[in-house]
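Final report, section 2: Outcomes. Of the targets proposed, Tagatose-6-phosphate kinase AgaZ is the one most frequently requested by collaborating groups, and we therefore present its record in full.
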Amino acid sequence: MKHLTEMVRQHKAGKTNGIYAVCSAHPLVLEAAIRYASANQNAVTD
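The predicted structure is given below as tokens.
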């Protein structure tokens, strides 16, 4: 929830942001999503 609250705060301050979704059970897709999130300092939830 902390991430969503921070996202709303940043949005109100004028920062462009959003949430992207990855819907897959394929291990390579999940690994890529986790690597991308890590490289871009984003949260990963299930």
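The chain has two helices and no strands.
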